[in-house]
Amino acid sequence: MQPAASQPNELQRVVAMREGIKVVVAYAFRINVLGLNAILLAKKFGEAASGFGVISNELRVFGRELREQMLALNTGSVQLVSLATRQLKLGRQMQLLQQANAAVQPAGKHMLAALALQQDEFSRLQQGISATLLHMHERLEAARESCLFGVVIARSARIEAAHAGPTGQELSSTSSEFAAHVNEVLPNLQLLQQTLGRQP
Length: 200
Description:
Elements: H1 8-45, H2 50-103, H3 109-162, H4 168-196
């Protein structure tokens, strides 16, 4: 048997991940709402803020995509808990069967066959855990890359606000909010990557 994701601390790690996911989802929601408000603000100022409106829409799309990536990551964490719990339960059953097998010599064919079936199931669950972890790593990396692009877009929003003339001050305030939210996402994603651990 392998300890891997079948240990109780693995389940604790997933709980910590789910809390981290909630934090990023909250930021994604704020970015999305801020993007919508910024688009309306850009329309209010007309042609002078048209570039800012385009950038704001890009940030809104980024917020939606980030939320989707986090929800997919959360689905992976639920699946990981299910697989890890089943593997933990199976591991305990295998230990009991091995103890019974050691107490009865020679071992019966049925007991050995049952042990072999359980070992196969244990290995299958481990493969499922490894595949789920790999998928979660890929989701996190995609989210990190999106966030790096989001940082660039947020900077572009500041530039567009600066070029908006007299209306730029109000747009600058909004672009600063964009930058603050986007900049908070990246360290939270890095924390999630640390919590998830090494790629299998």
